[in-house]
Amino acid sequence: MSFSQNIETKLSNSHIEGNELEKAGPASNIVILEQHETDRRLLNKLDCRIVPSVAFVYLLCYLDRSNIGNAKLLNSESGNSLMKSLSLTDLQYTITLMTFLIAFVFFEVPSNYCLKRFGPSRWIAFLMFSWGAITISLGTVQSYGALVGIRFLLGAFEAQSRATWAEAKRTLLAWPVWAHAVATFTISVPFSSLSLFSPTIVAGLGYKDLDAQLFTVPPYACAYFVTLSLAWFADRRNQRSLVAAGSMLVGACAFLAQGLLPENAFKVRFGLLCVAASASFGSIPPLFGWLSANIRGTGAVGLAIAINTSLGGMY
């Protein structure tokens, strides 16, 4: 039995025991409180040991998939940007981005099943080593074809629960999974745009070259704190759906207002970009938390999240 299954079994058993103790009467209250304290310590241990390492892995994963947006504009004034060095057209650049997403979508679910065969410690380590090596090789690219090929491999190795066939069938036939997938797809519009085109968007606000790179930091810094705050609030109040929907609405309004303002309103448009980025990224944790809270079984949750991530990556 896997570690995640052990945890799930313990929490399920503690819930059953707690219900039985509640029927026993007021004398069992002390035992119930002790059991709840044990559960709390267990969850805190998981948060302290697993969440930081997973967050660091995700940071590395996010950097190498989105840094092509920085390379597009960096050193453009001296003629050494990615676009000018490889003589890329806008269409070729877009195809390069889409190639990554095609591989990411195609390999997402199979990669999750490889976790069951090889184990998380081996499989995730292999993926990290592979995408790191491929990212380094991007620096040696000398042609458009090589760039497309390496971006495809990067998408394949970045695709990342475990499930039995029975769980897989039940998950694939569950309509909430596909409803969440539609919501995830709508989030992908601003999420992917910000990830891949942030320097270009900032350049459109009047900033050039290095300034266009540096001014992509404030929107992400704001989004970092807003995302953590919204995730904590949604979990604390058990209002994940409302928080996700409200955050998406705010983000949509901010993007719309930014597009309607005059081109020379740089400061206001940049402020709205920070709001839009914060709201867009802030809706993701509550939405995925809402999904996992409505799917039964560790393997089924992993498969459902993989499906959502795959469909969301189609944009």
From TrEMBL:
Nucleotide-binding as UniProt keyword: no
Mode of membrane association: Multi-pass membrane protein
Keyword field contains Transmembrane helix: yes
Descriptive protein name: Putative transporter C1002,16c
Transmembrane spans: 91-109, 129-154, 175-197, 217-234, 241-258, 270-291
Origin superkingdom: Eukaryota
SUPFAM superfamilies documented for this protein: MFS general substrate transporter
